[in-house]
Design a protein that fits this description.
The complex is a heterodimer.
Chain A (H helix, E strand, L loop, with lengths): L3 H7 L30 E4 L2 E5 L2 E2 L5 H9 L3 H9 L2 H9 L5 H8 L4 H8 L4 H11 L8 E3 L7 H13 L4 E5 L6 H15 L4 E5 L2 H9 L5 E6 L4 H6 L4 H13 L3 E5 L4 H4 L8 H14 L4 E3 L6 H5 L4 H14 L3 E3 L10 H12 L8 E4 L18 H11 L10 H21 L7 H9 L11 H13 L4 H10 L3 H16 L8 E2 L5 E2 L19 H8 L22 E5 L8 E6 L16 H14 L3 E6 L6 H11 L4 E5 L5 E5 L9 E3 L7 H15 L15 H18 L8 E4 L2 H4 L3
Parallel strand pairs in A: 4-5, 4-11, 5-6, 7-8, 8-9, 9-10, 15-16, 15-17
Antiparallel strand pairs in A: 1-2, 2-3, 12-13, 14-20, 16-20, 17-18, 18-19
Helix pairs in contact in A: 2-14, 4-6, 6-14, 7-16, 8-9, 8-19, 8-20, 9-19, 9-23, 14-16, 19-20, 19-22, 22-23, 25-27
Chain B lengths: L10 H4 L17 H5 L12 H13 L3 H13 L4 H11 L6 H13 L3 H17 L6
Helix pairs in contact in B: 3-4, 6-7
The chains are: A alpha/beta, B mainly alpha.
């Protein structure tokens, strides 16, 4: 037998993703693995003789590096003696300051770090992350790439990303030789969008250093580390080579963040039977020991493997917490596609989104996914409104600002024009006006006119050979009249001289002021402290372009001729074939249409027509004392000669009621006002007549739209508010008459 | 110049007079006007060893000893030529250099005043030898 419901679920996109049970031998276990070593640290004087299950002679390069540079033996004895759960409690105790936790972390071995974080529940992890984040205010990083490697489009996308508040942006290349041109386009675009945004071009280290030396990029996060020796060596590095490279970058004024993440060791075949979280603790111990200011972690490109395992999402949040605990800047993944399922993907995101990290994503794709050459695009241009709305929902700053369309068009065009000017000044293959126009308004690189790519690649080589620098770019902009962009590009060169952005978690604001964990440290210590989204920033993040004032959703009705005429107080009828049609206080007066847009006069006409078709006689009254449909209907029924009435609220909700029923009971209720047509109201009238005359009546067929509320609940509220406003307390009902123009249609 | 690492960060905003280019042009003179007149050069727009040492002091004062050591290595490497940097990096990659070659690089760095980095390379050589990560001959 097969269940059609199981079959339907098997067709959902989630079913494309395998879920597997743990297999610790292959490292396929998220956290708390059965083979993870017992935390331990044995000292012989100032020498570590045993750590986490290994004697000193067995230490691999990772152990050796951590012991040499990553452990404070003056703290180790105190810290290692604490119970795991005691440290875990301190992580979430708002009365234990961040600085104390960072101090303790300096004396803990990787196994101990992993064990402690493995004890925290998801909400505890989030609290710990909010407390341990290095910088006070969260930020975000953008991916800016396109398949055509179009410089105008790169510049326009960089400008949009900068204007939307991304503090860093990263590009890469499809063809390696493009690197100088892509870095150049990103530099121009970013500074045209917002001065101070930092940029990088993820390419091979030598080329990367060259771009940095020229002042075309300001940061790098390509330095990957791994948690086992064989994988580290397969990656063609050691902790020492990576640490050296980190210092080399810093010597050239490049902000460096290492990269690590759960699951990479299992993927590369040498997890040595350990859990992903334990191996990540080893990575992070190396990152801190190497003197990196920060790390890009959170599984990154291996995220889908970690998500195949039980507790995978939790382990990824755990590794972010670990990195923050080690006092590292955290760019918390969410860049590679985590899931086909929008639900699952976003549920995962909340772990970083809600507490806030130094960079909530390590690459939000500012362009549509197909142009993301990182293989990223977990969240992309098409998802922007959702991201902004979720920030607004939670009153959380996840680093992206809403910007109106005309302003985005303005900055995109200006950036593309600036790139066009620099290309012309530097003798690079020209950017045409058509390219500028397409980069300004286009959807993706399919909309770009073709370029001579061979000429671009040659020009890129030549650009480096000529030694064109960031200063030359500023001068080119200056000569072509882009004074503000020139000043911003020069500003980035000045930042390289001052090197303030080499400190932990540094970003640069629009005035050129560096904000890092040194001068803007996270001071979260519970409610009322730390970064809180309020004031002007909250005003900004809630003012999405599509937000309207609530009263704009309901048309103002002119006070001209009323649709119905009131004829004095309504009495109780004595005709047993009479059906009262009772309408709400605002009906045909301050409101003229139902939520479905039906004219109130035509609605009344249809109900009356239905009643007559059913063989009964309609009588119109207005209930003035209440706005609730049940009472409108019941009051009407008590006036009706047959005891049956149709109650109609101004927004179109209706009920068939009978005098002997309780007010909140009814014969039929019609709560789906957005779906009703005039024919629906006619059917209500017919049924009411049937009840009045004692016939057998089948209920009016009703449709159901479970999304109607989501779409219309705000309008419903506003319409009902108008109805409520028209209520006159204790006022008796009045007789109504349709004006001749409507009545004549009968 | 007294320098208080707890108060004088960011250098560019708090103590711009301490910041110069390698040839001694102060931060305040790094303007578009100066660039137009050819008074500054693109290759000059970088941190000096002294600036990097001040940043190391800031990091140490903020309780980040490893970052401080990294910035001290960076200060040493600031005056090391680009090619040499990349050669030392390559030598430090697994299986690239013999112990003797690594010692030679350490000596070369020492000659350039990069003593902390030289010690770092020697420490690597010792670890590599025990873990079989040096080139055989």
């Amino acid at each position: 037998m097969r269940s059609k419901r199981f079959a339907a679920r098997a067709r959902r996109e989630l079913a494309l993703e395998p879920l597997v049970s743990p297999l610790p031998e292959l490292g396929l276990v998220a956290a708390n693995g059965p083979n993870d070593p017992e935390p331990e640290l044995a000292l012989d004087g100032e020498r570590v003789v045993r750590m986490d299950g290994r004697d000193a002679e067995e230490f691999d390069v990772i152990d050796r590096f951590v012991v040499a540079h990553g452990l404070d033996l003056g703290i180790a004895e105190e810290a290692m003696a604490l119970e795991d759960v005691e440290i875990a409690r301190r992580l979430v105790d708002i009365d234990v300051p961040r600085a104390e936790l960072v101090r303790l972390s300096r004396g803990l071995t990787p196994a101990k770090l992993a064990r402690v974080v493995g004890l925290l529940e998801p909400v505890e992890l989030m609290l710990a992350l909010a407390k341990l984040r290095a910088r006070r205010a969260p930020a975000n990083q953008a991916h800016v790439t396109n398949l055509a490697e179009s410089p105008a489009l790169l510049a326009a996308d960089a400008a949009e990303a900068a204007r939307r508040g991304f503090a860093e942006m990263e590009t890469t290349v499809g063809v390696a030789r493009y690197a100088p041109l892509n870095a150049l386009a990103l530099l121009i675009g970013s500074q045209a969008g917002r001065p101070g945004v930092m940029t990088q071009c993820a390419v091979e280290e030598k080329r990367n250093l060259e771009l940095a030396i020229r002042g075309l990029v300001t940061y790098a996060e390509t330095l990957s580390v791994y948690g086992t020796e064989p994988v580290f060596v397969d990656g063609d590095d050691t902790p020492w080579s990576k640490a050296f490279l980190g210092a080399a970058y810093a010597s050239r004024g490049v902000k460096v963040r290492f990269t690590s993440g759960t699951g990479s060791e299992a993927l590369m075949g040498h997890a040595q039977g350990y859990s992903m979280l334990y191996l990540e603790a080893r990575c992070l111990a190396v990152v801190r020991a190497a003197g990196s200011q920060g790390v890009q972690n959170g599984s990154i490109s291996v995220v889908a493997l970690v998500l195949s395992l039980p507790g995978g999402v939790r382990a990824i949040l755990g590794e972010n917490v670990l990195a923050a605990w080690l006092d590292l800047e955290v760019a918390s993944g969410n860049d590679a596609i985590a899931s086909h399922s929008e639900i699952r993907k976003t549920a995962k995101l909340m772990g970083q989104f809600l507490p806030g990290t130094d960079f909530v994503t390590s690459g939000y794709s500012v362009m549509p996914r197909r142009d993301n050459t990182f293989g990223g695009g977990n969240y992309d241009a098409d998802d922007l409104d959702e991201w902004l709305t979720i920030q607004r929902d939670w009153q959380v700053d996840a680093g992206i600002e809403p910007v109106a369309e005309d302003e985005i068009l303005r900055v995109r065009e200006r950036a593309a024009r600036a790139a066009q000017a620099v290309f012309a000044e530097l003798g690079l293959p020209p950017i045409s006006d058509e390219e500028v126009a397409a980069a300004t308004t286009g959807y993706d690189s399919n909309d770009m006119p073709p370029r001579d790519r061979a000429a671009d690649v040659e020009a890129a080589d030549e650009l480096l050979a000529r030694g064109v620098s960031g200063l030359d770019v500023a001068l080119a902009l200056d000569r072509r009249g882009f004074a503000d962009v020139a000043a911003a590009v020069l500003g980035m060169q000045r930042q390289r001289v001052a090197a303030d952005y080499l400190q932990t978690a540094a970003v640069i604001d629009e005035h050129g002021l560096v904000r890092s964990a040194v001068n803007d440290p996270n001071d979260y210590a519970g409610p009322g402290t730390g970064y809180r989204l309020d004031g002007a920033r909250w005003e900004l993040l809630q003012s999405l372009p599509q937000v309207v004032a609530p009263d704009a959703l309901v048309d103002e009705e002119d006070a001209a001729e009323p649709l119905v005429r009131e004829r004095g107080e309504a009495g109780v009828g004595d005709d047993p074939s009479e059906v009262v049609v009772a309408v709400g206080p605002a009906f045909g007066k301050t409101l003229r249409r139902t939520i479905a847009g039906l004219d109130h006069g035509e609605v009344l006409h249809a109900v009356c027509e239905g009643i007559r078709e059913g063989g009964a006689v309609p009588r119109l009254v207005r209930i003035r004392r209440v706005a609730d449909v049940a009472f409108i209907g019941h009051d009407g029924a008590r006036l009706s000669g047959s005891g049956v009435a149709v109650g109609v609220q101004s927004k179109g909700t209706a009920v068939i009621h009978r005098a002997d029923l309780e007010p909140l009971d009814n014969l039929e209720l019609f709560g789906m006002a957005p779906l009703y047509t005039l024919e629906s109201y006619r059917a209500m009238g017919r049924n009411a007549a049937g009840y009045a005359l004692g016939r057998r009546v089948g209920p009016v067929p009703t449709e159901l739209d479970n999304f109607a509320r989501a779409k219309l609940i705000v309008r419903t509220t506003l319409l009902h508010a108008r109805e409520t406003k028209a209520v006159v307390a204790e006022a008796p009902p009045v007789e109504l008459e349709l004006p001749a123009s409507v009545a004549s249609a009968q | 110049m007294s320098f208080d690492p707890n108060r004088d960060y960011p250098l560019g905003a708090q103590r711009p007079e301490l910041v110069t280019t390698p040839s001694g042009v102060p931060l305040s003179e790094l303007t578009l006007a100066a660039a137009r007149e050819g008074r500054i050069d693109g290759a000059e727009m970088r941190a000096t060893p002294r600036t990097l040492r001040l940043q190391a002091e800031v990091a140490r004062a903020a309780g980040r000893p490893q970052l401080a050591e990294n910035l001290e290595r960076a200060a040493e490497l600031a005056s090391v030529p680009d090619d040499l940097l990349l050669e030392v990096y390559t030598a430090l990659r697994p299986g690239r250099a013999t112990v003797v070659e690594l010692e030679r690089w350490a000596t070369r760095l020492e000659e350039l005043g990069a003593t902390a980095t030289a010690a770092f390379v020697r420490e690597a050589a010792a670890a590599y030898e025990e873990r079989g990560l040096v080139r055989a001959q």
